[in-house]
């Protein structure tokens, strides 16, 4: 029996993969993919889920959820992808195009989906577009790279892996010091003591006890729905659930009179969704300086000292020559470097990085990890790094893992 041919296509943040996908689904002949020209294909992607979600919300047309009372919007990322895959399989497609299928999924859900896709790939052709080489399914038999709009074939699997190994990256120079150091006398920045939280009768955190001290580097991991977002929002002050609990921040019990802005002065925070808030015409230099004022963009005239500090950060990031570029013109990876510099410019006692590498290609993720390592080594800032995946090369001086698990009692913490 002839083995099913499955195609891996490595993409990056500059790949024009939309045209490639359209050609496949329109049954156009593509060199290396000629056997699919007359066959029917289905698309497994985040964009497809959003398209079906839009149909539900705007036109009340349920397709992926027609056999359930639940709406697509209320499902977890894993449930949404499971519903889409079931729909595509029911359509009897000859091949499936998978676009970064494991993005936004926790480790356990990734593993389940991987097993399911491998089983499908034994009898049905898969074309997997992946930004991260570690996500490529083991059933792949043909290997390509999409560089811009140029499709590059590899003669063998070995040549593909050799050509796409990610080299270690390091930033030259040193982390610029703050204009005004923030000194804290208390050694504990965060202290949860038996904290439980419920929403609408559903328990989200169950007797959480967690201490974060000066100089720690924590990785916060756990499946979707295990309480990570709730935990972080109680630290940043964006959730009222912290009041009345045995929770102390920077040595002060929550609710003792501190304002949200008092907390935010001591916390640097970045999540990729923040980049959407900065859609105006802000230069890179002004973006970094805005971190000194906790503002979305810069609306005051910066001092010369502030300009010099911002330029030191941009020099470190190898973006000094682009200091007058608009933030919106940057690549996704460079935007995240700038946003991290913005969060770090004051050297806050606590830096929270919430899924900072989600959606990045290998090169972008490696660059971001290198910056985080440098911050950990050269500053006194405590770091909480939230991620669904354990990033290769992340080697902080101090490393602790807070693993949230919904084992019977949702959000129970296991400290390693």
UniProtKB/TrEMBL annotation:
Keywords annotated in UniProt: ATP-binding, Nucleotide-binding, Transport
Q: Which GO terms describe its molecular function?
A: ATP binding; ATP hydrolysis activity; ATPase-coupled transmembrane transporter activity
Q: Which residues form the ABC transporter domain?
A: 190-414
| Alphabetical list of InterPro entries matching this protein | AAA+_ATPase, ABC_transporter-like_ATP-bd, ECF_ABC_transporter_ATP-bd, P-loop_NTPase
Return the Gene3D superfamilies for the record. P-loop containing nucleotide triphosphate hydrolases (3.40.50.300)
A Gene Ontology CC term for this entry?
ATP-binding cassette (ABC) transporter complex
- Top-rank taxon: Bacteria
Which Pfam families has this protein been placed in?
ABC_tran
Protein name listed in UniProt: ATP-binding cassette domain-containing protein
Q: What is the lineage of its organism?
A: Bacteria, Pseudomonadati, Bacteroidota, Flavobacteriia, Flavobacteriales
């Amino acid at each position: 029996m002839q083995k099913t041919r499955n195609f891996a296509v490595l993409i990056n943040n500059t790949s024009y993969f939309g045209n490639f996908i359209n050609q496949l689904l329109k049954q156009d002949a593509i060199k290396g993919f000629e056997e699919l020209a007359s066959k029917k294909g289905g698309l497994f992607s985040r964009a497809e889920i959003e398209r079906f979600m839009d149909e539900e919300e705007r036109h009340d047309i349920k397709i992926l959820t027609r056999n359930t009372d639940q709406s697509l919007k209320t499902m977890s990322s894993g449930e949404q992808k499971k519903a889409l895959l079931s729909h595509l399989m029911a359509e009897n497609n000859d091949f499936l195009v998978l676009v970064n299928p494991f993005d936004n999924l926790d480790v356990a859900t990734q593993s389940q989906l991987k097993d399911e896709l491998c089983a499908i790939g034994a009898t049905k052709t898969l074309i997997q577009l992946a930004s991260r080489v570690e996500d490529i399914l083991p059933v792949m038999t043909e290997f390509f790279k999409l560089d811009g709009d140029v499709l590059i074939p590899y003669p063998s699997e070995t040549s593909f892996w050799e050509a796409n190994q990610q080299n270690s990256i390091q930033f030259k120079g040193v982390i610029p010091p703050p204009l005004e150091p923030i000194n804290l006398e208390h050694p504990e920045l965060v202290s949860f003591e038996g904290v439980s939280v419920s929403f609408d009768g559903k328990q989200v955190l169950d007797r959480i006890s967690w201490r974060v001290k000066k100089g720690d580097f924590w990785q916060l991991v756990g499946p979707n729905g295990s309480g990570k977002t709730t935990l972080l929002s109680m630290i940043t002050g964006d959730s009222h659930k912290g009041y009345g609990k045995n929770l102390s921040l920077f040595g002060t019990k929550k609710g003792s009179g501190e304002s949200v802005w008092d907390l935010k002065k001591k916390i640097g925070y970045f999540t990729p969704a923040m980049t959407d808030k900065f859609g105006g015409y802000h230069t890179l230099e002004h973006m970094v300086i805005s971190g000194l004022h906790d503002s979305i963009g810069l609306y005051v005239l910066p001092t010369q000292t502030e300009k010099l500090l911002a330029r030191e950060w941009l020099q470190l990031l190898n973006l000094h020559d682009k200091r007058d570029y608009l933030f919106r013109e940057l690549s996704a990876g460079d935007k995240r470097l700038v946003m991290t510099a913005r969060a770090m410019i004051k050297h806050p006692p606590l830096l929270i990085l919430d899924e900072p590498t989600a959606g990045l290609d290998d090169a972008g993720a490696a660059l971001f990890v290198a910056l985080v390592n440098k911050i950990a080594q050269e500053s006194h800032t405590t770091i909480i790094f939230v991620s669904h995946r354990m990033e290769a090369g992340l080697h902080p001086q101090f490393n602790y893992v807070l693993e949230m698990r919904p084992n019977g009692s949702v959000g129970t913490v296991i400290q390693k």
